[in-house]
Amino acid sequence: MKKILLILLFLSFIPSCVVLADAPFHIGIVTASVSQAEDAYRGAERLVEEYGRISDGGIFDHLTLPDNFAAEMETTINQIVSFAEDPLMKAIVLEPGMDGTVEAFRRVRALRPDILLLAGEPAEDPLMLAETADLSIYADLISRGYTTAVEAKKMGADTLVYIAFPRAISIELIGRHRDITEAACEDLGLKFINVGAPDPASDVGVAGAQQFILEKVPAWIDQYGTKSAFFAPIQGHQEPLVRRVLEGGAIYLEPVAASPTMGYPGALGIGFEESEKGDWPKILEKVEEAVIARGGSGRMATWAYSLAYSFVASLGEHAKRVIEGQSEILNIDDIMDAFSKYTPGAEWKGNYLVDPDGIERENYLLLYQDTYVHGLGYLKVTSEEIPKKYYDPNIGKK
Length: 398
Fold this sequence. Notes:
Elements: H1 2-12, H2 14-17, E1 26-31, H3 38-51, E2 60-64, H4 73-81, E3 89-95, H5 101-111, E4 116-120, H6 126-132, E5 135-139, H7 141-154, E6 159-164, H8 166-170, H9 172-188, E7 191-196, H10 205-224, E8 228-231, H11 238-248, E9 251-252, H12 264-268, H13 280-293, E10 301-302, H14 307-323, H15 332-342, E11 348-354, E12 360-369, E13 372-373, E14 377-378
Parallel strand pairs: 1-2, 1-3, 3-4, 4-5, 5-12, 6-7, 6-8, 8-9
Antiparallel strand pairs: 10-13, 11-12, 13-14
Helix pairs in contact: 3-14, 4-5, 7-9, 10-11, 14-15
């Protein structure tokens, strides 16, 4: 009996004293810092928690970009390329795919053509990314041009107010989203109003842009009524827009990079415990309770899971499965299966990017998640059959 007890005591110490075998391959994840892009950071954190950090014998390493990475582009590119020095590195995932992604991928490819290169929300020219990355994923602003209008109509709107500025509209996919939304509003019997607002990246800064929204939205609600639905594509406008739309009893449509943590927490004074960060069902529940308590039930929209979090975690998981031979890099069902793992209950729909020559780019996928309305639930916009004419790159062009 004494011998058995000694054996059991020895075995109880094995997990804490035995060094696990190193992972057979490595994957590098690159995001902005937690202060700049918390949702994406939490997606990388989830992968590291689930599969382990390389330094501990796990699969993933997580590199955070400097907060001023645009001013330190060469340093940032070199950091990304440094992943290629690891002989076990088999994939690199960037989210967001900031300016410099194409050059970083080209340099990695020159050193290590065996490494898979994946980008979420790439900022650079889609065709350049399609020529460089193995897989790029962006929010499907083409399909969502139509579903944004459908969403507004389903939520009881008779007018859609689109708030933007020239730099935002000059981004190809956002410009097309605006044009398609306008065309869809006309077809669905909604009035479309295009209004300008300051660029948060201009001299007025984020504070000036937000003050403009705070001052103008009440006047717009007075002018267009409480059946007006408001959409702004850029993150910097969301918090004041949520606040004023909720106060004025109008309708809020989720932005381009939708998330329950975008706009709502700051506008509603919601805080999250450390244990809740990255727990999207809990985050959604707290936001929904606050919206309903302020009379916004059925009138305030979001995505149930953050776009950035979903892209990071799902691309990392997909890369892992491809390396293991469980999935194919461009198989859309395999990609969707990785997304479903991290966004249970939410429906996704995807389409390939079609370039100006009408060619489908199978390695550049456009995705969108079903819209969630606080107090109402999912709108099922992913089930909408979108007329083919809205995919015409010339729609809205005069």
